[in-house]
């Protein structure tokens, strides 16, 4: 084979040596995937390692001039409230009340069917008439007997008749006198029976025992009412419930640990849950000298110094007891108030965690004052309007970013 033929065969042979370019490309692609995987793993590890905590917060409020020494909650109650019923069992004939109606003392609320009571009254009247007729007959007989006694006394004196006949007429007269006395007593009994029967008729008319407002209507015409609830579930025990709105007051349960702060005639600010912007002046009436062992509370009665139709029984109310004698104290009105649960402790000293810009935590050392119900007075370390963390966790520290949890009842 010549030289030229060998060169031609070498040109026709296939070159199977791998190329360097695809190998480099695959190397760079693998390196990029590895970098992405490392970055994703680092991000996931960082997210798990440092989660954003969620906390509830509260705002520090300035203590006013009339600072409360104690806060409590309670309800509006009526000192005079009655479920008005009848004295007798009977069928309701007519009901003349409706809820919300104002009525005066003695005003008719309802009437019962008076048929039985009228019959008893008619019978008593008849018995009284009979007793009166009997006494008329006895008086006529007594008049005749007394005349016979006088006449026979003259005849005996003249000895025209025997004394025995005079004794007979005297005995007859005395017997009639006794019967007349009995008849008079019967008339008194019959008169008393008429009065009782009249009261029975009057008992069919149910009247308001005092002036007030109807808050419940309990019976309808045709129903049976009874003060003894005879007849089970088909018998009503009352016509309606009447409340004297002038007797409204507040009852609160004060923790027995703080009852020493409450004094008689102490001024009180009351705020109804229904009208949170309306501050009602009030004062302590009495501290009930008995404690509830199950709740460790003492009941306190509070008088409302303002009468208003918006105040109704069973309304929820918040009260603040104010000590006028201490209102001029050195630090009684200083500082701010925050929930007691917002004050933590670090190294044995009280601190609070203030929510700063970008919701980052700033720890503040505090100078605390007196307890104010569920709140606490802070004399130094906080300013009015600052937001503090409520119930901070033990590991909460400066610079930690938190997430403020939505308030209870708010939309997510």
TrEMBL record:
InterPro entries: Beta-barrel_RND_2, BSH_CzcB-like, MdtA-like_C, RND_pump_MFP. This is Acriflavin resistance protein. GO terms for cellular component: efflux pump complex. Keywords: Coiled coil, Membrane, Transmembrane, Transmembrane helix. Residues 80-226 form the CzcB-like barrel-sandwich hybrid domain. Signal peptide: none annotated. Residues 250-324 form the CusB-like beta-barrel domain. Residues 337-391 form the Multidrug resistance protein MdtA-like C-terminal permuted SH3 domain. It comes from the Bacteria. PANTHER family: HLYD FAMILY SECRETION PROTEIN, MULTIDRUG RESISTANCE PROTEIN MDTA. One of its GO terms (molecular function) is efflux transmembrane transporter activity. SUPFAM superfamilies: HlyD-like secretion proteins. Belongs to the membrane fusion protein (MFP) (TC 8.A.1) family. Residues 128-193 form a coiled coil. Pfam families: Beta-barrel_RND_2, BSH_CzcB, RND-MFP_C. The chain crosses the membrane at residues 26-45.
């Amino acid at each position: 084979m010549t030289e030229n033929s060998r060169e031609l065969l070498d040109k026709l042979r296939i070159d199977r040596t791998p190329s360097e370019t695809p190998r480099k490309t695959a190397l760079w692609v693998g390196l990029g995937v590895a970098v992405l995987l490392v970055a994703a793993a680092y991000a996931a590890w960082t997210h798990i390692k440092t989660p954003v905590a969620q906390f509830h917060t509260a705002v520090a409020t300035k203590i006013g001039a009339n600072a409360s020494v104690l806060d409590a909650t309670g309800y509006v109650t009526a000192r005079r409230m009655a479920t008005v019923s009848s004295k007798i069992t009977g069928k309701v004939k007519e009901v003349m009340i409706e809820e919300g109606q104002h009525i005066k003392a003695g005003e008719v609320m309802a009437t019962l069917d008076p048929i039985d009571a009228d019959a008893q009254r008619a019978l008593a009247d008849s018995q009284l008439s009979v007793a009166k007729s009997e006494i008329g007959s006895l008086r006529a007989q007594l008049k005749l007997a007394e005349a016979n006694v006088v006449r026979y006394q003259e005849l005996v004196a003249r000895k025209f008749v025997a004394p025995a006949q005079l004794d007979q007429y005297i005995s007859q007269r005395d017997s009639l006198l006794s019967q007349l006395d009995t008849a008079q007593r019967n008339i008194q009994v019959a008169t008393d029976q008429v009065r009782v029967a009249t009261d029975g008729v009057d008992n069919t008319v149910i009247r308001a025992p005092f002036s007030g407002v109807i808050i419940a209507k309990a019976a309808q015409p045709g129903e049976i009412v009874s003060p003894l609830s005879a007849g089970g579930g088909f018998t009503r025990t009352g016509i309606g419930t009447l409340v004297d709105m002038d007797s409204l007051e507040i009852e609160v349960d004060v923790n027995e640990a703080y009852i020493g702060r409450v004094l008689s005639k102490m001024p009180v600010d009351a705020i109804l849950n229904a009208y949170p912007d309306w501050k009602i002046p009030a004062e302590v009436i009495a501290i009930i000298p008995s404690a509830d062992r199950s709740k460790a509370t003492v009941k306190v009665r509070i008088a409302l110094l303002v009468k208003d139709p918006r105040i109704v029984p069973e309304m929820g109310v918040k009260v603040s007891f104010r000590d006028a004698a201490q209102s001029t104290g050195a630090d009684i009105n200083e500082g701010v108030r925050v929930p007691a649960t917002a004050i933590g402790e670090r190294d044995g000293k009280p601190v609070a965690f203030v929510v700063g810009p970008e919701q980052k935590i700033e720890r503040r050392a505090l100078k605390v004052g007196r307890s104010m119900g569920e709140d606490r007075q802070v004399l130094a370390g906080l300013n009015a309007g600052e937001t503090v963390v409520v119930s901070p966790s033990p590991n909460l520290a400066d610079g930690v970013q938190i997430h403020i949890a939505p308030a209870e009842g708010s939309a997510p």
